[in-house]
Amino acid sequence: MLYLLDLIGVVVFALSGALIAREKRYDLFGGLVLAVATAIGGGTFRDLCLGRTPLFWTQDEWYLGLASLTAVISLLAFRLWPSDSAISSHWARALLIADAIGLAVFTAIGTHIGIQAGLSPLMAAVMGMVSGCFGGVLRDVLAAREPLIFQRDIYATAALLGALCWLLIEPITSVDLATLCAISVTAGLRLLAIQRNWHLPTYHDDR
Amino acid sequence: MLYLLDLIGVVVFALSGALIAREKRYDLFGGLVLAVATAIGGGTFRDLCLGRTPLFWTQDEWYLGLASLTAVISLLAFRLWPSDSAISSHWARALLIADAIGLAVFTAIGTHIGIQAGLSPLMAAVMGMVSGCFGGVLRDVLAAREPLIFQRDIYATAALLGALCWLLIEPITSVDLATLCAISVTAGLRLLAIQRNWHLPTYHDDR
Amino acid sequence: MLYLLDLIGVVVFALSGALIAREKRYDLFGGLVLAVATAIGGGTFRDLCLGRTPLFWTQDEWYLGLASLTAVISLLAFRLWPSDSAISSHWARALLIADAIGLAVFTAIGTHIGIQAGLSPLMAAVMGMVSGCFGGVLRDVLAAREPLIFQRDIYATAALLGALCWLLIEPITSVDLATLCAISVTAGLRLLAIQRNWHLPTYHDDR
């Protein structure tokens, strides 16, 4: 089940990369790079930190394959549908939702792998949060865009709370249940924060 | 012969870094960083993914040495020659050519190393393409410049076709011949695409 | 003593990250990410190059803990003090000083670790310089800011001279003394260069 979830995370994050490629009017290869970097960036960073090499995506072609396929199908879809301004705000919302699901899935998986690698629970939660966030940060840096994580919304906070939720539930029940709960918490919080316009305090007094 | 080609790739990619340092009016150390990052970035990424540590350039001083020397000599050369606008377009072309040769050399070497590390042929081609492209992407990100790879030109496509060419030729003939063919295909395609103004389809309908 | 110095480096670099988060008006989590990335970026890069995994900060919670604490305390401090323009130039100077101390500390430690990992002296100096500079470069790239290292000031040069100083003094005396001397040389040179407005030659003739 974890493997399946991992592939779902790959597809939604690849989609978020493709949506930004569309926004930035990149070509197919730019879109492929952005989709793949978003999809495998978090797991790559996690495994490099833990010394798990050769990396998972060099050993299993489904990761790059699915991410590339998502980028190609997105390009076709974007060209089929017109892009007047009403649709545009639709795509912007699709980007935020795909990003939230990818964040939630990769955070839960990253926390699990951190515990398996013998990290302390707190550090496993941090590793989960980093796995979840890194792909999106990489995507935004590559596209020369202000990273979503640096905007005032609840973002990494949602990932951290999901990871803590995993750590609380897993010892009592099972890995699968903990993963589902953690995903619901992270994605739910992130989407609620977007809808309700919840923010974190800033470094600068706004009065 | 592969080692020699590797060093040639280092010099041309270092030169492309120095040309961007000139464009951005960086100082000598900025130029050194950009030259070195471009020259060893692709190989560093490749070896981190495959778990080949400590990295090649920490064990052999020729890599950093040649890249630094290229940066220093370029700085002297740029200061000797005046920079009126006619010359400027000359330098812009030099950048595209140096970048194309570096891309071709590192793609061929990366594909070879991928096969040696036991990757599947398809994944070895991807690894070769990534090795070839990553240095230039890193250079452009560090210099806060829109990455060449994200522009509409044929770029990573040329690398991928070169890598596939290596995989087709190597089993029939030898590593050396496959490498030369792959380099010719990648560099040739990339330069033709620049000259003929070939593009990939974009994510956005241009009508 | 090295461990203590390492933690001091973490705090000052985290502070430099928080100061940039303030300048960019990021929220608390943006500030945390920037503080942590600056504080552990150099050591992470160094250990990835040398294959020292799992990384130090996944095994010892003081690193992330101290960096996060610095980011939180800075946010509180920034909100308590008003930010009229006179204070602003004060904070800009604080950023340059924190950055110089972090650069000096991590360069000395990186050189030591390079020698321990069996690198040649020259390569250990380069590794020290890279450890010192990388955190700040990462911080500036994440904040979409022109990296300090690419500005015309003496920056990496100060790190390199500090590293060379460590290599000269350590065989004659002790690791501790060499580290203190190297830190003084790097931080002293960097601060002098800022105060006296020393620059490196550029790639572009300014006449």
Write the H/E string of chain A, N to C.
HHHHHHHH
Helix content of chain A: over 70%
Oligomer: homotrimer
What's the mean pLDDT score of chain A?
86
Query: Which strand-content bin applies to the residues of chain A?
Result: under 5%
The greatest interface between two protein chains, and residues involved on each side, is: A-C, 32 and 34 residues
Number of strands of chain A: 0
Structural shape of chain A: globular
Describe this protein's structure.
- The structure is a homotrimer.
- With about 210 residues, chain A is mainly α.
- Helix content of chain A is about 75%, strand content about 0%.
- The first copy, chain A, contains eight helices and no strands.
- Chain A is globular and about 50 Å long.
- The termini of chain A are far apart.
- The model of chain A has no long low-confidence stretch (mean pLDDT about 85).
- Chains in contact: A-B, A-C, B-C.
- At the A-B interface, helix 1, helix 2 and helix 4 of A face helix 2 and helix 6 of B.
Strand and helix layout:
The structure is a homotrimer.
Chain A: H1 2-23, H2 28-50, H3 56-59, H4 62-80, H5 85-116, H6 121-142, H7 156-169, H8 175-196
Helix pairs in contact in A: 1-2, 1-4, 1-5, 1-6, 2-4, 2-5, 2-6, 5-6, 5-7, 5-8, 6-7, 7-8
Key features?
homotrimer, 207 residues, 8 helices, mainly alpha
Short account of what is shown:
By secondary structure, chain A is an all-alpha fold. Helix content of chain A is 76%, strand content 0%. At the A-B interface, helix 1, helix 2 and helix 4 of A face helix 2 and helix 6 of B.
